[in-house]
Amino acid sequence: MQHLLATHPRRRLFQLSPPATKPSREGVFFLPSIRIGLAVLALGGLGAGSLALAQEPPAPSPERSRELIRMVRQDCGSCHGLTLRGGLGSPLLPETLRDKPPDGLKHTILLGRPGTAMPPWKTFLNEAEADWIVAQLLRGFPEESK
Ligand code: HEC
Predict the structure, then answer these.
(1) 117 in ligand 1 pocket by Cβ < 6 Å?
(2) What is the reported pLDDT for 92?
(3) With a 6 A CB cut-off, is 80 part of the ligand 1 pocket?
(4) How far is CA 72 from CA 1, 4, 24, 39, 140, in A?
(5) What was the pLDDT predicted at 28?
(6) 93 CA distance to ligand 1 centroid (A)?
(7) 68 lines ligand 1 (CB under 6 A)
């Protein structure tokens, strides 16, 4: 009896102590892991951001941009509607183009669509300019500046 009483409390202490220290230890590791998680999320966000930036086609010179805007409004507009809401050609609005692959749209602009009224524009536009036009169409094409 004496023996049991003497060892029992110590045993309990011993058995209790690991679970008592373990959560606090985990807590110490848990916090940094949250911070690492946040850092990874932040980096991921930055990565996605710079990826979006990298995909943004380079803007042509201000002069050329004005020419291209005029061309899309006037020449493309003659078929696609002056407000690009559609006419003989389909609407070229962000909501109608959003789900279509930008590369496909670029190729349609450069090569036209055989068998339809959509003519090729590759003699008037280079690939980067067609990319830029697609990017502008997707965000809502700019108005001509007068
Ligand atoms: C002579 C008329 C005409 C002109 C000018 C014209 N298009 Fe088109 N375009 C069309 C037609 C018609 C279609 C639809 C083809 C089809 O039925 O698939 C089309 C399709 C397109 C598409 C694909 C749209 C989609 O939803 O897939 C894009 C992008 C486009 N045109 C851009 C342009 C741009 C930019 C210009 C000027 C540089 C231009 N078009 C000039 C007639 C024209």
Answers:
(1) yes
(2) 98
(3) yes
(4) 98, 94, 65, 43, 12
(5) 52
(6) 12
(7) no
What is residue 17's predicted lDDT score, i.e. its pLDDT?
47
The protein residue whose alpha carbon is closest to atom 6 in ligand 1 is: 76
Question: Which of the listed residues 76, 82, 131 should we mutate to test ligand 1's pocket, taking the one with most ligand atoms within 8 A of CB?
Answer: 76
Mean pLDDT, each 10-residue run in order, the chain (146 residues): 50 49 50 49 44 69 96 97 95 97 98 97 97 97 88
What is the Cβ-side half-sphere exposure of residue 27, based on CA atoms within 13 angstroms? 6
The answer regarding whether domain 62-139 maps to CATH 3.50.50.60 reads no
Q: Is the dihedral of CA 63, 67, 68, 72 positive or negative?
A: positive
Domain limits, the chain: 1-55, 62-139
